[in-house]
């Protein structure tokens, strides 16, 4: 129990996010916002709206989990210190003369460091969400998974929704459907930490936090260096989906139509055309079945 | 008090919804989801999103009432048993090989049985919502009506909203405006049970539940067999709207101004076309009435 | 302390909003709703939806603040008296024969009186919101500002959102971004009353309420009479934005890069056109400044 490994992970799990890791998280979020086309011009035209959007990018996960648990979404505003910290980072990022921050951030090592530290905060958010949900619902393990997921990766949902309200984002079913890599890895972590919380995993939490964080940082940095969206889950997902939803043997006999249907739908995104196609397919299928 | 009728209704009002009626409700909801064009293909492409949509179809009313009362919308996830039940029904409905479930459901008697049992759950939801709202606001009878209505028929609103966020549904003012038959009958039931709750109706609750449920099931099955959207409320609505909003005599004389005014106003905006048409319709109706 | 001025403001600050000022607020809100193209025709086609929209117009600010503080958004429905008052005003406004109300309201003095009384209610709402938020978060002055702002000017946000759901309103980034004059003045008042609440302003609340209300009423009536959207904040905003976000000297020299960069980024996305225009405008402005 007193092995150096244990001490290391224990000390790691007690690291405080507050000053530095939060700064890295805010910096990455605000830079991602500034990368959006026109964000800089909007910041000059209407600083208040830009500040609000930046806050949504920084605190979106917490806001979403508050909404899901019927806690005040404004609670994040009550934490004056973090608000002022994020606001100052938003300020220097957007309004620093000759935007030195963007130029400094454009160096790869800085980006790697900031992204790595942001991934560390993701672990803390997931753990916080799972334990928080556990305090509400003792054995509601589905709720724990959902809240951990919302805290860790809910920011994108909130910002998408804000884009929708602003009208700057025309949603498409496919965009909404496909999960991004952070969403997937956060869901995995949320499931793992929920099982650990409900004593279904025989591993101490600080060890799990250390290992999961290392995995997060390693994959993130690898993806940033090799600039390729590597999907470590692809084979796992394939096997799982084949196990759960596949049954290729029996299924391939009478389900090929649906497969072709899906590929058809994939081509057209404007939802009106594929729907007609789909309904036609369905008709054909039934007629074939009746024949 | 011990009449067989009373015993029957009392026993009926004590029926537990849990295993069988809930199953029927989930089955009808999931089948309605699967009937949507492209839903099956989406389930193959992204099972998680399809599962989420199915849960919204199954628990939408409860979620809406939770939102309106500022209770955690995730509470429905804490009821693991119902979640697993609905999930398994969603699973066998979408991924059963050669989808046997759909074929079995395509037989009319099965549909009638499932639809009838679903209507029974509607009564239980309305009563639950009214009593739940009554525990919050003692004499807030408007809140009781709203919550009973939301629990009973709020699922469609939630799913419409989800469609809107997904972008699969382009809303139109008229769609949103016109109430469906279930919404109307649920509103009626919510009003009735609210009056019974506030002791304005001299009828015991179990009798009222029995009668209202019988009415629901009878109308629903009649509509399904005769495949015609019968509107038992149409004459009632006409008389009511004529009493409240009609005053045709004075109105037809000097309302044309406002009609023309409204169409004038309409010219400026993007929604001018449908409005003008609507006002024309209204005009025609009134001219016919005056003839 | 017993100066007549003090007594006047004290008595003013103790004025009850209930019967008359609330009526004026409901009247102005419902008339603004009726002015919308097609609202009258919709009221005839679907009175329930029109009533719901009218309630949103009348109680929108309170609903928004309830949502932000995770209080039941339906609470406003529990206040039966105000609901019935607003409903009756909605009723006589829309369904009065030969709509006498609209014709009576079309006289300028009536409009001025109603608008002035509505502005008085704005002050009461801001103060109520600030004190209410203060009871939640002792030193969360950002929350206090937000809640005061939401109560005072949140109705427009709620109604915009309702329009979005109905599909009657196609949002554009610019519409969402630019704040209306009431939003600005409400934000100013919310900040002022928050500072007074946190003892940073050495002025008694009733004096502040009197002065702020006088300012509101005066500006509103001036804007209505001279039919010009006067912006008393324009110079203040210019100086502030130049102080905070300006730094024109360094900025105009090296900001063109980011402008062009942003327009480059813009080319990919759907919102590239307006952004490019905006950045062009900004460029022109800066070039003019540099000349």
UniProtKB/TrEMBL annotation, chains A, B, C:
Function statement: Intracellular monovalent cation channel required for maintenance of rapid intracellular calcium release. Acts as a potassium counter-ion channel that functions in synchronization with calcium release from intracellular stores. Activated by increased cytosolic Ca(2+) levels.
Major subcellular site: endoplasmic reticulum
Designated name of the protein: Trimeric intracellular cation channel type B isoform X1
Span list, region Disordered: 258-291
PANTHER family found in the cross-reference section: TRIMERIC INTRACELLULAR CATION CHANNEL (PTHR12454), TRIMERIC INTRACELLULAR CATION CHANNEL TYPE B (PTHR12454:SF5)
Family: Belongs to the TMEM38 family.
Reaction it catalyzes: K(+)(in) = K(+)(out)
Membrane-crossing residue ranges in chain numbering: 51-70, 209-234
One GO cellular component term: endoplasmic reticulum membrane
GO MF entries: identical protein binding; potassium channel activity
Membrane topology listed for this record: Multi-pass membrane protein
Pfam family membership, one: TRIC
Keywords: Endoplasmic reticulum, Ion channel, Ion transport, Membrane, Potassium, Potassium channel, Potassium transport, Transmembrane, Transmembrane helix, Transport
Comp. bias regions, Basic residues: 282-291
Location of the protein in the cell: Endoplasmic reticulum membrane
Record's subunit section: Homotrimer; conformation seems to be controled by binding to diacylglycerol (DAG).
Comp. bias intervals (Polar residues): 264-273
């Amino acid at each position: 129990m007193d092995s150096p490994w244990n001490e290391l992970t224990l000390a790691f799990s007690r690291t405080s996010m507050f000053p530095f890791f939060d700064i890295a998280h805010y910096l990455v979020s605000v830079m991602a916002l500034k990368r959006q086309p026109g964000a800089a011009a909007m910041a000059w035209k209407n600083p208040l709206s830009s500040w609000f959007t930046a806050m949504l990018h920084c605190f979106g996960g917490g806001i979403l989990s508050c909404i899901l648990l019927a806690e005040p979404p404004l609670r994040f505003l009550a934490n004056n210190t973090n608000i002022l910290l994020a606001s100052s980072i938003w300020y220097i990022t957007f309004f620093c003369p000759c935007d030195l921050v963007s130029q400094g951030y454009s160096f790869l090592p800085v980006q790697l460091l900031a992204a790595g530290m942001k991934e560390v905060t993701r672990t803390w958010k997931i753990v916080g969400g799972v334990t928080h949900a556990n305090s509400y619902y003792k054995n509601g393990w589905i709720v724990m998974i959902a809240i951990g997921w919302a805290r860790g990766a809910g920011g994108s949902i909130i910002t998408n929704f804000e884009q929708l309200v602003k009208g700057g984002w025309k949603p498409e079913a496919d965009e909404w459907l496909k999960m991004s890599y952070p969403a997937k890895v956060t869901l995995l972590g949320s499931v793992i930490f929920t099982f650990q919380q409900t004593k279904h995993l025989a591993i101490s939490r600080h060890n799990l936090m250390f290992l999961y964080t290392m995995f997060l940082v390693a994959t993130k940095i690898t993806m940033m260096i090799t600039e390729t969206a590597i999907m470590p889950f692809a084979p796992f997902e394939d096997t799982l989906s084949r196990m759960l939803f596949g049954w290729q043997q029996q299924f391939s006999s009478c389900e090929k139509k649906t497969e072709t249907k899906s590929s058809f739908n994939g081509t057209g995104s404007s939802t009106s055309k594929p729907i007609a196609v789909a309904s036609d397919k369905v008709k054909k299928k039934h007629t074939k079945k009746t024949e």
